[in-house]
Please model this.
Amino acid sequence: MGECEFQSALYRNVREMCLAIAEEWLSYSGLNDRDEIQKALTSSSDAYLADQCINMWRLDKSDDDISTFDDATTWMQRRGATRDDLIESFADIRANFDEHFPVDD
Model:
C-alpha cells in the first residue's frame, strides 16, 4: 500500500484519507454550504456519490500520462483505497453530519 495522500496532505490511514476525499467532494472544495451538502446526501445514495467522485476525479484511472509511474495502477490502487472505502466514508458523513460539517457560529 502506498502513502495515504490527498491534495498534498498525508493521512494516517485509508479511512481518514477517504473521509477527506468525501468531504471535499460534498463541499465542492468549500463552495457548497451545509444545506447544499445535506441536499446531496438526501438525494443520492452513498454508492452513487462514491461513483460520481471516482469517475469525475478519475480516481480509478491510471495517470501515467501525467506522472512518472511506470505501471498502470490507478490513483486509488497506489493508495490502497477502494470504492467500498469511499462508500463507507460517505455513509459516515451521512451518519455524523454535524461532526464533519459543524455549524458556523
Remarks:
- The chain has a mean pLDDT of 89.
- The longest strand covers residues 5-6.
- The radius of gyration is 14 Å.
- Residues 5-100 form one domain.
